[in-house]
């Protein structure tokens, strides 16, 4: 059963209120929980099959879980961006960056995080997953609502 627009609004409101939301997708149980990371920062954490996913591992590593690419937040970044910004300000910096030997500075890296900064971003991410259902938590692993 697909989740309609009213149910997604209820999920977002429940997450903001601090409730734990359980989902089922292709035999996996996923739940999203609000957590305090630092003294003043709240995030929404994703758990896959009742454990925190090892989102820091890459594809060739031992213990890598391919479900991370589906359920966790994708972050792209350029590790050389600070150096690029400094070089651009120098005289001749833009032409220096255009050289073939400096092409590595423009490559981006993709990583995944099990944290969402807001309830809205978590809901938008999970809306895109086809076949996702909301389940109620119980001893048997959940039942459909």
Descriptive tags:
six-stranded antiparallel β-sheet, 28% helix, 5 helices, 8 strands, disordered C terminus, single chain, alpha+beta, 145 residues
Report on the structure:
With 145 residues, this protein is an alpha+beta fold. The chain has two domains: 5-72 and 114-144, no CATH class; 76-111, no CATH class. It is built from five helices and eight strands, in the order αβββαβααββαββ. It has a six-stranded antiparallel sheet with strand order 6-3-2-1-7-8. The protein has a two-stranded antiparallel ribbon with strand order 4-5. Helix 1 packs antiparallel against helix 5. The longest helix is centred in the N-terminal third of the chain and has 13 residues, at 5-17. It is elongated, with a radius of gyration of 20 Å. It starts with a helix and ends with a strand. The relative contact order is 0.21. Residues 139-145 have low confidence and may be disordered.
Shape: elongated
Number of domains: 2
Radius of gyration: 20 Å
Category from helices, strands and their pairing: alpha+beta
First-last Cα distance: 9 Å
Main β sheet profile: 6 strands, antiparallel
Helix coverage percent of residues?
25-40%
Report strand %.
25-35%
Please count the beta strands (DSSP E, at least 2 residues each).
8
Could you state the order of secondary-structure elements as H and E? HEEEHEHHEEHEE
Give the overall pLDDT as a whole number: 86
**What is the count of helical runs?**
5
* Strand line-up of the largest beta sheet: 6-3-2-1-7-8
């Amino acid at each position: 059963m697909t989740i309609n627009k009213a149910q997604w609004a209820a999920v977002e409101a429940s997450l903001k209120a601090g409730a734990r939301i359980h989902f089922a997708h292709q035999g996996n149980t996923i739940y999203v929980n609000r957590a305090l990371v630092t003294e003043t920062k709240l995030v929404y954490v994703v758990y896959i099959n009742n454990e925190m996913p090892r989102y820091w591992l890459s594809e060739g590593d031992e213990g890598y879980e391919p479900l991370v690419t589906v359920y966790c937040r994708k972050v792209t970044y350029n590790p050389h961006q600070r150096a690029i910004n400094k070089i651009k300000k120098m005289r001749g910096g833009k032409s220096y960056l255009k050289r073939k030997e400096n092409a590595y500075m423009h490559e981006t890296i993709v990583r995944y995080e099990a944290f969402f900064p807001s309830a809205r971003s978590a809901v938008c991410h999970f809306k895109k997953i086809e076949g996702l259902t909301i389940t109620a938590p119980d001893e048997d692993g959940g039942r459909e609502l």
